[in-house]
Specification:
The chain is of the alpha/beta class and about 250 residues long. It has a single domain, classed as Rossmann fold (3-Layer(aba) Sandwich). It is about 40% helix and about 15% strand. The protein has ten helices and eight strands. The protein has helices at about 40-45, 75-90, 100-110, 130-135, 135-145, 145-155, 160-175, 180, 200-210, 230-245, and strands spanning about 5, 10-15, 25-30, 50-55, 95-100, 115-120, 190-195, 215-220. Strand 1 (about 5) and strand 2 (about 10-15) form a beta hairpin. The longest helix is centred in the N-terminal third of the chain and has 15 residues, at about 75-90. It starts with a strand and ends with a helix. About 45% of the residues are buried. InterPro entries: AB_hydrolase_1 (IPR000073), AB_hydrolase_fold (IPR029058), AB_hydrolase_sf (IPR050266). Pfam families: Abhydrolase_6. Keywords: Hydrolase.
């Protein structure tokens, strides 16, 4: 799978499928995940005949960190790297689907005018006060030793423990999005969230959908944060949203 040179940093790894001349759809994964985690959406979107592009966000998987290393990790920096990918591949203003951290980066791209439509799955718009504890490596090991072993296998460019700690710091100190900017978001927006999300307050998803002029909200019953991507209701909602934008 290919790599591109990201701005002020190392290579950005990505995968793609579908016709090269088709409408591009960019799939952005969650924190501590990789492009492979978006496979449930690939399965439902491929029949639409779109071009699917899935990067590993900076520091994740095989993508290296920007110049300055972990201290330089930021939402804006991740968006910069994805913008470079968009430009290098000639994607124009793709449709974007982002899950959790990927949704935050997707919102940033939308605010920059680099997305033609945006589906946001379980993504916050305000900082996470408890992010340092949630992403503390020792806490992750205690909660799920199996997941810790999987993280070590997934993240080959940056040790997962260092990445997790940096993400916790980032999400705790990130200022969030300006409400006035969200109220001027000029693209169709779908927000999907589970009613049992333990990481993103439900009111943040509702607020985003309410603020954005083209926003709509879909609640998935009995879905927490980790499993939202795998729920059939989520996949149908995203497929229907992307399908309408293709017409």
């Amino acid at each position: 799978m290919p790599l591109i040179a990201a701005p002020n940093g190392g290579p950005l790894f990505y995968a793609e499928s579908g016709p090269a001349a088709a409408r591009p759809v960019l799939l952005l994964h969650a924190a501590l995940q990789t492009h492979e985690s978006m496979a449930p959406l690939v399965e439902v979107l491929e029949p639409l005949g779109v071009r699917l592009v899935r990067p590993d966000l900076p520091g994740h998987g095989r993508s290296e960190l920007p110049g300055g290393g972990l201290k330089a990790l930021s939402i804006g920096g991740m968006a910069d790297a994805v913008e470079t990918l968009i430009d290098r591949l000639g994607l124009g203003a793709p449709l974007v689907v982002g899950y959790s951290l990927g949704g935050i980066v997707g919102i940033e791209l939308g605010l920059r005018g680099r997305a033609a439509g945006l589906a946001v799955l379980a993504s916050r718009i305000r900082p996470a006060a408890g992010a340092r504890a949630t992403f503390a490596p020792e806490s992750i090991r205690q909660r799920s030793p199996l997941w810790a072993r999987q993280l070590a296998e997934k993240h080959v460019a940056t040790p997962w423990e260092s990445l997790a700690a940096a993400l916790g710091e980032l999400l705790a100190t990130w200022p969030g999005f300006d409400s006035a900017a969200l109220a001027a978001l000029p693209i169709p927006l779908l927000v999907v969230q589970g009613d049992r999300d333990q990481m993103v307050p439900l009111e943040q998803g509702r607020e985003l959908a309410r603020l954005a002029p083209g926003g709509s909200f879909r609640l998935v019953p009995r879905a927490g944060h980790p499993e939202l991507l795998y729920r059939e209701e989520t996949r149908v909602a995203v497929k229907d949203f992307i399908g309408k934008l293709l017409c």
